[in-house]
Write a structure and sequence with these properties.
Elements (H helix, E strand, L loop, with lengths): L7 E12 L9 E6 L11 E11 L3 E6 L8 E5 L2 E5 L1 E9 L2 E8 L1 E6 L10 E11 L3 E6 L8 E12 L9 E3 L13 E9 L1
Parallel strand pairs: 1-3, 2-4, 3-5, 3-6, 4-9, 5-10, 6-10, 9-11, 10-12, 11-13, 12-14
Antiparallel strand pairs: 7-8
């Protein structure tokens, strides 16, 4: 409806884990969305502060806008290690061209959906180390009328981006403009001592 969504604030002293998907195929995770159609307002921010963070087997932390409003930012502060690893179980969606099977990547997402009119949120990760593996991703993208958000990674020790998922999708940092979108892609900034791809 009309109005801004609230923020999601998570503070965990030790370890935080988001893992897998439910029996319906919905990924475990944290979501902030400005919905499609009649939504007029900004999506909320997601703020997570924790000792260590694990997002695995298709779980997601995601902020998006499908209506008239900006997507929220994703701010991750991890004292020790951050791991984004793997794909979720096989899912099926129906498109006009027929059914499509896919697997959801584990990761951090910010997107302007096809019906969205607004700016995508930024993703900022501050951590000791970041490992993205087996199809895991950090993605900001735009499919609608607005620019994609930026990705900033500050890792004191190292960042590793390694391997592919079971569907051959690459582990990656991505900030693309999709075909038909009316905004530019985002910037990717990585500050670390060692960066392995």
């Amino acid at each position: 409806g009309q109005g801004n969504a609230g923020n999601v604030n998570i503070r965990i002293r030790n370890a935080s884990s988001f893992d897998g998907a439910g029996s319906s195929g919905t990924p475990s995770g944290v979501y902030s969305r400005a919905e499609a159609n009649e939504a007029v307002g900004n999506g909320g921010n997601i703020n997570i502060a924790t000792g260590s963070l694990s997002v695995t087997n298709g779980a997601v932390i995601t902020a998006s806008t499908q209506g008239r409003g900006n997507g929220g930012n994703v701010e991750i502060y991890v004292r020790n290690d951050t791991v984004l690893d793997g794909l979720g179980p096989l899912q099926e969606i129906t498109l006009p061209s027929g059914p499509l099977q896919f697997q959801q990547s584990s990761g951090l997402f910010s997107s302007v959906k096809r019906t969205g009119v607004g700016e995508g949120g930024n993703i900022r990760v501050t951590t000791r180390s970041l490992s993205i593996a087996n199809g895991g991703v950090i993605v900001t993208r735009t499919e609608g009328q607005g620019r994609a958000g930026n990705i900033t990674v500050n890792a004191a020790d190292f960042v590793t981006v390694d391997g592919v998922g079971s569907d051959n999708s690459s582990s990656a940092l991505l900030a693309p403009t999709q075909p038909g979108a009316g905004g530019r892609g985002g910037d990717i900034t990585v500050n670390t001592n060692i960066f392995r791809v």
